[in-house]
Amino acid sequence: MEYEEPKFFHVMQYAAAADRDVIDMVSGNPDWEPPAALREALREYADLPPDAFQYPPSEGLLELREAIAERRSVDVDRVVVTNGTGEANYLAMARAFDRDAGDEAVLLDPVYPYYPGKVDMLGGEAALVPTERDGGLDVAAIREAASADTALIVLNTPNNPTGAVYDLDAVREVVEIAHAVDALVLVDEVYDHFDQTGRFESALTLDSDRVIVTSGFSKSMAITGFRVGYGILPAGHVGDAKTRHMLVNVAGPRPSQYAVHHALAETPPEYYAEARELLADRADAFTDALDAAGAEYSRPEGAFYVLARFEGFPGTMANVKRLVDEAGVAGMPGEAFGSARDEWIRFALVTPRAVEAAERLADYFGD
Q1: H runs (alpha helix) in 204-307
Q2: What is the Cβ-side half-sphere exposure of residue 61, based on CA atoms within 13 angstroms?
Q3: Is the pTM of this model over 0.85?
Q4: How does pLDDT run across 116-161, given as a tens digit for each residue?
Q5: Residue 296 to residue 53: CA distance in whole angstroms
Q6: What percent of the residues of the chain are helix, what percent strand, and what percent coil, each to the nearest 5?
Q7: Which fold has domain 49-266?
Protein backbone atom coordinates (compact mmCIF):
# COMPACT_ATOMS: atom_id res chain seq x y z
CA MET A 1 0.00 0.00 0.00
CA GLU A 2 1.22 3.51 -0.81
CA TYR A 3 0.62 6.40 1.56
CA GLU A 4 0.40 10.07 0.67
CA GLU A 5 3.08 12.28 2.23
CA PRO A 6 1.48 14.87 4.54
CA LYS A 7 1.13 18.23 2.79
CA PHE A 8 2.69 19.98 5.80
CA PHE A 9 6.12 18.77 4.77
CA HIS A 10 5.62 19.80 1.16
CA VAL A 11 4.74 23.37 2.11
CA MET A 12 7.56 23.67 4.64
CA GLN A 13 10.09 22.37 2.13
CA TYR A 14 8.83 24.79 -0.51
CA ALA A 15 9.08 27.73 1.90
CA ALA A 16 12.57 26.71 3.04
CA ALA A 17 13.77 26.66 -0.58
CA ALA A 18 12.33 30.10 -1.42
CA ASP A 19 14.65 32.88 -2.60
CA ARG A 20 13.23 35.37 -0.10
CA ASP A 21 12.53 35.75 3.60
CA VAL A 22 9.45 33.68 4.48
CA ILE A 23 7.52 33.73 7.74
CA ASP A 24 6.56 30.15 8.68
CA MET A 25 2.94 29.89 9.80
CA VAL A 26 2.61 26.25 8.73
CA SER A 27 3.67 24.10 11.65
CA GLY A 28 2.36 24.10 15.21
CA ASN A 29 5.75 24.46 16.89
CA PRO A 30 5.41 26.76 19.92
CA ASP A 31 8.07 29.49 19.97
CA TRP A 32 8.03 30.28 23.69
CA GLU A 33 10.17 28.87 26.49
CA PRO A 34 9.46 25.43 27.94
CA PRO A 35 8.94 25.27 31.70
CA ALA A 36 12.07 26.07 33.70
CA ALA A 37 11.59 22.87 35.72
CA LEU A 38 11.89 20.83 32.53
CA ARG A 39 15.32 22.25 31.74
CA GLU A 40 16.42 21.65 35.32
CA ALA A 41 15.23 18.04 35.19
CA LEU A 42 17.23 17.41 32.03
CA ARG A 43 20.37 18.70 33.71
CA GLU A 44 19.72 16.38 36.65
CA TYR A 45 19.15 13.45 34.32
CA ALA A 46 22.65 13.68 32.85
CA ASP A 47 24.10 12.71 36.23
CA LEU A 48 21.80 9.77 36.99
CA PRO A 49 23.25 6.23 37.26
CA PRO A 50 23.49 3.95 34.19
CA ASP A 51 20.20 2.17 34.82
CA ALA A 52 18.39 5.44 34.09
CA PHE A 53 19.69 5.21 30.52
CA GLN A 54 17.97 1.88 29.84
CA TYR A 55 14.45 0.97 28.71
CA PRO A 56 11.65 2.47 30.79
CA PRO A 57 8.46 0.46 31.33
CA SER A 58 6.78 0.11 27.96
CA GLU A 59 3.57 1.82 29.09
CA GLY A 60 5.57 4.75 30.50
CA LEU A 61 7.31 5.74 33.72
CA LEU A 62 5.01 4.89 36.60
CA GLU A 63 5.51 8.26 38.29
CA LEU A 64 4.49 10.09 35.11
CA ARG A 65 1.46 7.88 34.59
CA GLU A 66 0.45 8.47 38.21
CA ALA A 67 0.76 12.23 37.75
CA ILE A 68 -1.39 12.10 34.61
CA ALA A 69 -3.94 9.87 36.31
CA GLU A 70 -4.20 12.21 39.28
CA ARG A 71 -4.71 15.28 37.10
CA ARG A 72 -7.24 13.49 34.93
CA SER A 73 -9.04 11.76 37.82
CA VAL A 74 -8.69 8.27 36.32
CA ASP A 75 -7.16 4.98 37.39
CA VAL A 76 -3.45 4.84 36.58
CA ASP A 77 -3.89 1.48 34.85
CA ARG A 78 -5.86 3.23 32.09
CA VAL A 79 -2.94 5.51 31.15
CA VAL A 80 -0.50 4.62 28.36
CA VAL A 81 2.37 7.03 27.69
CA THR A 82 3.06 7.25 23.95
CA ASN A 83 5.45 8.79 21.45
CA GLY A 84 3.46 11.99 21.14
CA THR A 85 -0.29 12.41 20.87
CA GLY A 86 -0.06 11.12 17.32
CA GLU A 87 0.81 7.61 18.50
CA ALA A 88 -1.93 7.76 21.12
CA ASN A 89 -4.41 8.55 18.33
CA TYR A 90 -3.04 5.66 16.27
CA LEU A 91 -3.49 3.23 19.18
CA ALA A 92 -7.05 4.44 19.77
CA MET A 93 -7.98 4.10 16.10
CA ALA A 94 -6.45 0.63 15.94
CA ARG A 95 -8.56 -0.47 18.90
CA ALA A 96 -11.71 0.78 17.20
CA PHE A 97 -11.02 -1.19 14.01
CA ASP A 98 -9.69 -4.32 15.73
CA ARG A 99 -13.09 -4.99 17.36
CA ASP A 100 -14.71 -6.22 14.10
CA ALA A 101 -17.41 -3.61 14.61
CA GLY A 102 -17.08 -1.99 11.18
CA ASP A 103 -14.39 -0.33 9.11
CA GLU A 104 -15.68 3.24 8.88
CA ALA A 105 -14.40 6.28 10.78
CA VAL A 106 -16.58 9.38 10.99
CA LEU A 107 -14.30 12.42 10.86
CA LEU A 108 -15.25 16.08 11.00
CA ASP A 109 -14.64 18.33 8.01
CA PRO A 110 -12.44 20.38 8.18
CA VAL A 111 -10.20 17.63 9.49
CA TYR A 112 -6.65 17.45 10.81
CA PRO A 113 -5.01 15.62 7.88
CA TYR A 114 -3.24 13.00 10.01
CA TYR A 115 -6.60 11.52 11.07
CA PRO A 116 -7.67 10.29 7.62
CA GLY A 117 -4.06 9.30 6.95
CA LYS A 118 -4.05 7.01 9.98
CA VAL A 119 -7.48 5.63 9.11
CA ASP A 120 -6.21 4.72 5.67
CA MET A 121 -3.05 3.17 7.09
CA LEU A 122 -5.17 0.98 9.38
CA GLY A 123 -7.35 -0.22 6.51
CA GLY A 124 -10.40 1.83 7.43
CA GLU A 125 -12.63 4.12 5.37
CA ALA A 126 -13.01 7.78 6.31
CA ALA A 127 -16.41 9.48 6.09
CA LEU A 128 -16.15 13.27 6.36
CA VAL A 129 -19.03 15.11 8.07
CA PRO A 130 -19.10 18.93 7.91
CA THR A 131 -19.12 20.93 11.13
CA GLU A 132 -21.27 23.95 11.80
CA ARG A 133 -20.10 27.16 10.13
CA ASP A 134 -18.36 28.25 13.35
CA GLY A 135 -16.62 24.88 13.62
CA GLY A 136 -18.97 23.52 16.28
CA LEU A 137 -20.37 20.00 16.25
CA ASP A 138 -23.28 19.30 13.91
CA VAL A 139 -24.73 16.46 15.96
CA ALA A 140 -27.59 15.85 13.54
CA ALA A 141 -25.13 15.38 10.65
CA ILE A 142 -23.04 12.96 12.73
CA ARG A 143 -26.16 11.01 13.65
CA GLU A 144 -27.17 10.76 10.00
CA ALA A 145 -23.67 9.61 8.96
CA ALA A 146 -23.25 6.96 11.67
CA SER A 147 -24.26 3.42 10.76
CA ALA A 148 -23.57 -0.22 11.56
CA ASP A 149 -20.33 0.15 9.57
CA THR A 150 -19.09 2.94 11.87
CA ALA A 151 -16.35 1.73 14.20
CA LEU A 152 -14.97 5.11 15.21
CA ILE A 153 -15.92 8.77 15.60
CA VAL A 154 -13.05 11.24 16.00
CA LEU A 155 -13.39 14.59 17.77
CA ASN A 156 -10.69 17.19 18.43
CA THR A 157 -11.35 19.95 20.95
CA PRO A 158 -10.09 22.65 21.09
CA ASN A 159 -9.99 22.08 17.37
CA ASN A 160 -7.29 22.21 14.74
CA PRO A 161 -7.87 23.95 12.33
CA THR A 162 -11.10 25.79 13.29
CA GLY A 163 -10.22 26.78 16.87
CA ALA A 164 -13.69 25.67 18.04
CA VAL A 165 -14.23 24.45 21.61
CA TYR A 166 -16.94 21.79 21.66
CA ASP A 167 -19.82 21.98 24.10
CA LEU A 168 -19.74 18.99 26.44
CA ASP A 169 -23.45 18.33 25.96
CA ALA A 170 -22.84 18.01 22.21
CA VAL A 171 -19.95 15.59 22.88
CA ARG A 172 -22.28 13.61 25.14
CA GLU A 173 -24.78 13.30 22.29
CA VAL A 174 -22.02 12.02 19.98
CA VAL A 175 -21.09 9.39 22.58
CA GLU A 176 -24.74 8.29 22.70
CA ILE A 177 -24.72 7.96 18.90
CA ALA A 178 -21.54 5.86 19.16
CA HIS A 179 -23.17 3.59 21.71
CA ALA A 180 -26.16 3.06 19.42
CA VAL A 181 -23.96 1.90 16.51
CA ASP A 182 -21.27 0.12 18.58
CA ALA A 183 -18.52 2.67 17.83
CA LEU A 184 -15.76 4.16 19.93
CA VAL A 185 -15.24 7.92 20.27
CA LEU A 186 -11.69 9.23 20.15
CA VAL A 187 -11.42 12.71 21.66
CA ASP A 188 -8.07 14.39 21.01
CA GLU A 189 -7.62 17.05 23.70
CA VAL A 190 -4.00 18.03 23.00
CA TYR A 191 -4.91 21.75 22.96
CA ASP A 192 -6.79 21.71 26.27
CA HIS A 193 -4.41 24.25 27.86
CA PHE A 194 -5.22 26.71 25.07
CA ASP A 195 -8.93 27.13 25.74
CA GLN A 196 -9.63 30.88 25.54
CA THR A 197 -13.32 30.57 26.49
CA GLY A 198 -13.22 28.93 29.92
CA ARG A 199 -15.85 26.47 28.62
CA PHE A 200 -13.67 23.48 27.82
CA GLU A 201 -14.58 20.30 29.70
CA SER A 202 -12.81 17.00 29.13
CA ALA A 203 -14.75 14.11 27.64
CA LEU A 204 -13.40 12.06 30.55
CA THR A 205 -16.06 13.67 32.73
CA LEU A 206 -18.63 11.64 30.78
CA ASP A 207 -17.22 8.44 32.34
CA SER A 208 -18.10 6.35 29.30
CA ASP A 209 -16.57 3.04 28.24
CA ARG A 210 -16.97 4.30 24.64
CA VAL A 211 -14.55 7.22 25.07
CA ILE A 212 -10.80 7.24 24.53
CA VAL A 213 -9.12 10.55 25.36
CA THR A 214 -5.68 11.44 24.01
CA SER A 215 -3.40 14.33 24.81
CA GLY A 216 0.23 15.21 25.34
CA PHE A 217 2.76 17.86 26.29
CA SER A 218 4.18 18.91 22.91
CA LYS A 219 2.02 22.03 22.73
CA SER A 220 1.33 22.86 26.37
CA MET A 221 5.02 22.73 27.37
CA ALA A 222 6.40 23.89 24.00
CA ILE A 223 8.35 20.65 23.52
CA THR A 224 7.22 19.15 20.22
CA GLY A 225 10.59 17.41 19.88
CA PHE A 226 10.25 15.46 23.13
CA ARG A 227 7.44 13.18 21.92
CA VAL A 228 5.55 12.58 25.15
CA GLY A 229 1.85 11.97 24.73
CA TYR A 230 -0.67 9.66 26.33
CA GLY A 231 -3.92 7.84 25.86
CA ILE A 232 -6.55 7.19 28.51
CA LEU A 233 -8.49 4.12 27.49
CA PRO A 234 -11.41 2.22 29.00
CA ALA A 235 -10.28 -0.81 30.97
CA GLY A 236 -11.47 -3.21 28.29
CA HIS A 237 -9.19 -1.68 25.64
CA VAL A 238 -6.05 -0.67 27.48
CA GLY A 239 -4.37 -4.09 27.42
CA ASP A 240 -4.48 -4.44 23.64
CA ALA A 241 -3.33 -0.84 23.22
CA LYS A 242 -0.32 -1.49 25.47
CA THR A 243 0.60 -4.55 23.44
CA ARG A 244 0.42 -2.71 20.12
CA HIS A 245 2.47 0.15 21.61
CA MET A 246 5.12 -2.35 22.75
CA LEU A 247 5.27 -4.07 19.36
CA VAL A 248 5.56 -0.79 17.44
CA ASN A 249 7.87 1.16 19.74
CA VAL A 250 9.05 -1.11 22.58
CA ALA A 251 8.97 1.99 24.81
CA GLY A 252 9.09 5.75 24.69
CA PRO A 253 12.11 7.96 25.50
CA ARG A 254 12.96 7.87 29.18
CA PRO A 255 14.68 11.30 29.52
CA SER A 256 11.67 13.08 28.02
CA GLN A 257 9.26 11.34 30.37
CA TYR A 258 11.49 12.09 33.37
CA ALA A 259 11.66 15.77 32.48
CA VAL A 260 7.93 16.07 31.82
CA HIS A 261 7.12 14.42 35.14
CA HIS A 262 9.21 16.99 37.00
CA ALA A 263 7.76 19.85 34.98
CA LEU A 264 4.22 18.69 35.73
CA ALA A 265 4.92 18.78 39.45
CA GLU A 266 6.73 22.12 39.54
CA THR A 267 5.23 24.31 36.80
CA PRO A 268 2.72 26.85 38.15
CA PRO A 269 -0.60 27.59 36.41
CA GLU A 270 0.78 31.01 35.47
CA TYR A 271 3.03 29.37 32.88
CA TYR A 272 0.04 28.15 30.88
CA ALA A 273 -1.91 31.35 31.46
CA GLU A 274 0.94 33.43 30.04
CA ALA A 275 1.01 31.28 26.90
CA ARG A 276 -2.75 31.75 26.45
CA GLU A 277 -2.40 35.50 26.91
CA LEU A 278 0.42 35.67 24.38
CA LEU A 279 -1.68 33.78 21.84
CA ALA A 280 -4.76 35.91 22.50
CA ASP A 281 -2.72 39.07 21.85
CA ARG A 282 -1.37 37.57 18.62
CA ALA A 283 -4.86 36.56 17.52
CA ASP A 284 -6.08 40.12 18.12
CA ALA A 285 -3.25 41.68 16.13
CA PHE A 286 -3.40 39.10 13.36
CA THR A 287 -7.14 39.38 12.83
CA ASP A 288 -6.96 43.21 12.93
CA ALA A 289 -4.55 43.01 10.00
CA LEU A 290 -6.81 40.51 8.24
CA ASP A 291 -9.60 43.08 8.57
CA ALA A 292 -7.34 45.51 6.73
CA ALA A 293 -6.80 42.86 4.05
CA GLY A 294 -10.55 42.46 3.60
CA ALA A 295 -10.40 38.81 4.65
CA GLU A 296 -13.06 36.65 6.23
CA TYR A 297 -11.66 34.67 9.16
CA SER A 298 -12.42 32.61 12.24
CA ARG A 299 -10.99 33.87 15.52
CA PRO A 300 -9.94 30.82 17.55
CA GLU A 301 -11.77 29.95 20.76
CA GLY A 302 -8.91 27.57 21.50
CA ALA A 303 -5.69 26.12 20.05
CA PHE A 304 -3.63 28.63 18.03
CA TYR A 305 -4.73 28.63 14.42
CA VAL A 306 -6.60 31.14 12.27
CA LEU A 307 -8.53 30.17 9.16
CA ALA A 308 -8.79 33.01 6.66
CA ARG A 309 -10.49 33.40 3.29
CA PHE A 310 -9.39 35.98 0.75
CA GLU A 311 -11.81 36.92 -2.02
CA GLY A 312 -10.87 35.29 -5.33
CA PHE A 313 -7.94 33.46 -3.74
CA PRO A 314 -9.01 29.91 -2.78
CA GLY A 315 -6.93 27.79 -0.41
CA THR A 316 -5.19 25.65 -2.98
CA MET A 317 -1.61 24.42 -2.82
CA ALA A 318 -0.83 26.62 -5.84
CA ASN A 319 -2.10 29.75 -4.07
CA VAL A 320 -0.22 28.88 -0.88
CA LYS A 321 2.96 28.73 -2.96
CA ARG A 322 2.06 32.11 -4.49
CA LEU A 323 1.87 33.58 -0.98
CA VAL A 324 5.30 32.15 -0.21
CA ASP A 325 6.81 33.60 -3.38
CA GLU A 326 5.00 36.92 -3.53
CA ALA A 327 4.11 37.81 0.08
CA GLY A 328 6.71 35.92 2.09
CA VAL A 329 4.14 34.13 4.26
CA ALA A 330 3.69 30.34 4.44
CA GLY A 331 0.33 28.92 5.50
CA MET A 332 -1.50 25.64 4.95
CA PRO A 333 -3.97 25.20 2.09
CA GLY A 334 -7.55 24.70 3.21
CA GLU A 335 -7.90 21.84 0.73
CA ALA A 336 -5.47 19.86 2.93
CA PHE A 337 -8.15 19.78 5.67
CA GLY A 338 -10.97 18.31 3.57
CA SER A 339 -13.52 20.02 1.38
CA ALA A 340 -15.52 22.14 3.82
CA ARG A 341 -12.93 24.93 4.01
CA ASP A 342 -11.12 24.51 0.71
CA GLU A 343 -11.52 28.24 0.05
CA TRP A 344 -9.57 29.04 3.22
CA ILE A 345 -5.93 29.10 4.35
CA ARG A 346 -4.78 28.12 7.85
CA PHE A 347 -2.16 30.18 9.68
CA ALA A 348 -0.43 29.04 12.90
CA LEU A 349 0.12 31.83 15.43
CA VAL A 350 3.15 30.18 17.02
CA THR A 351 5.73 32.61 15.67
CA PRO A 352 6.94 35.93 17.10
CA ARG A 353 6.51 37.31 13.59
CA ALA A 354 2.74 36.71 13.45
CA VAL A 355 1.94 40.43 13.34
CA GLU A 356 4.54 41.04 10.63
CA ALA A 357 3.03 38.18 8.63
CA ALA A 358 -0.43 39.70 8.91
CA GLU A 359 0.90 43.05 7.74
CA ARG A 360 2.46 41.35 4.72
CA LEU A 361 -0.89 39.75 3.92
CA ALA A 362 -2.66 43.09 4.32
CA ASP A 363 -0.19 44.74 1.95
CA TYR A 364 -0.42 41.89 -0.55
CA PHE A 365 -4.20 41.69 -0.71
CA GLY A 366 -4.65 45.43 -0.23
CA ASP A 367 -2.71 45.99 -3.43
Answers
A1: 235-249, 254-266, 269-292
A2: 18
A3: yes
A4: 999 999 999 999 999 998 899 999 999 999 999 999 999 999 999 9
A5: 51
A6: 45, 15, 40
A7: Aspartate Aminotransferase; domain 2 (3.40.640)
Q: Can you give the pLDDT at residue 26?
A: 94
Q: Is the dihedral of CA 32, 35, 39, 45 positive or negative?
A: negative
Decide whether 7-34+270-366 matches 49-266 in CATH topology.
no
Angle of the 269-292 helix axis to the 354-366 helix axis, nearest 10: 10
Say how many C-beta atoms besides its own lie within 10 A of residue 239's C-beta.
12
φ and ψ at residue 231, rounded to 5 degrees: -120, 145
- Spell out the domain ranges in the chain: 7-34+270-366, 49-266
Confidence of residue 367 (pLDDT cuts 50, 70, 90): low
Longest pairwise C-alpha distance within the chain: 63
| Residue 160: partners with Cβ closer than 8 Å, 6 or more residues away | 28, 112, 191, 303, 305
161 preceded by cis ω (within 30°)?
Answer: yes
CATH code assigned to 7-34+270-366: 3.90.1150.10
- Any alpha helices (H) in the chain, and if so which ranges? 7-16, 36-45, 62-72, 84-98, 114-121, 139-145, 168-181, 235-249, 254-266, 269-292, 317-327, 354-366
Question: Is 182 in contact with 101 (CB distance < 8 Å)?
Answer: yes
Compute the distance between CA of residue 81 and CA of residue 130 in angstroms, rounded to an integer. Answer: 32
Q: Is residue 318 pLDDT above 80, yes or no?
A: yes
Mean of the per-residue pLDDT values of the chain: 95
